[in-house]
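BUG: 3D viewer hangs when loading the predicted structure for this chain

Environment: internal workstation, default settings.
Expected: structure renders.
Actual: progress bar stalls at 90%.

Input used:
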Amino acid sequence: MRKNIGFLFSLLLGLMPVHASPQQQNIALLLHKEIAQFKKTERLDAISIAVYVDGKSYQYHEGVLADGTSPNNNSLYEIASITKTYTGLLLAQAVLDGKIQLDDPISRHLLNHGYSNLSKNGVPITFRHLATHTSGMPKDLAYTEDDRVNGRMIDRMRNYTKSHFMQELAKTTLLSTPGEQYRYSNAGAILISYMLEDIYGTSYSTLLEQIVFAQSGEIDTKLRSTNSEAHSVVRGTDETGKLAPLLSIYSSAEGGLTTTSTSMINYLAFSLDDKNPLVRKSQEFLAGDMRTNGRSFFWNTFQYNGADKMLYHGGGSLGTSSWVSIYPNKKIGIFIVTNTTAGDTQRKLNEFSNRLYRLMQEKASQA
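Structure tokens produced before the viewer hung:
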């Protein structure tokens, strides 16, 4: 029994900041208990978590990855659609720089103009529509739902270039009037990135480096678009338990970023810096209901005008599920990732994140 206690203590030491206060020790104990129980209950192979609370950071890892190694602070994960929150930051910077206005018709900023098809019932698509998934654009242009269901998605994405995208865009029919309906669109995020590349005259990756990472201090977060770059990225399992291929290699502004829990700590801290003009702009409310569910620059929002205001986003690749949530009023950020897409993993990560927040709030009130 003493051996087990010693082992547990060593694990908790890894969770705790140096010179941890009683409150920090309580948070570390809470995280250890809750993560171990969540992994066991949900029968996950592995899980990693990064938590940022009022200037202090915690990282925890549990389980075994598909290659037989244990996850750690340097494990590289796909974060899939969480990438869109980074794309939202670039869009917010373009607004701050006066390069665009949120309610500009996007056709003004498309090279060669044209694209009269990007309006419906006399209403043109704007940047606001793209950033809030209300543009009426299809979910994807590179592939169809039939391609996805029948395993052709990666083949369609593999050699799909900007030129292909723009050609397809010119033939696209909007599914609804811009601004009227929420329709999740990966294509909308990709379109924003292509327009920003043209506006700034440089690549999406370079924009991330210059605008976001230079401020957030993230070292590991990047697009890894070749097999050699992506060889260290964690591969997970799909809903059948089969080892899944990486999707990030063929993705970009809609879901291509890979990162570590260490870099996500930096992102959480950056996202909670309300003195940073870019952070403030990127979290402005853009659509929906402030009292319940809304949207910012690709962030989803919940109770935006409340004390427990939350901004969040999920990420799902072919073999990885992830979740990020920030609570600006409480200076709390949570990132969770696991190497599976089985069942309703995304919803469970959402619920687990909500639970961790509630428990940490209870601990804070008892301090």
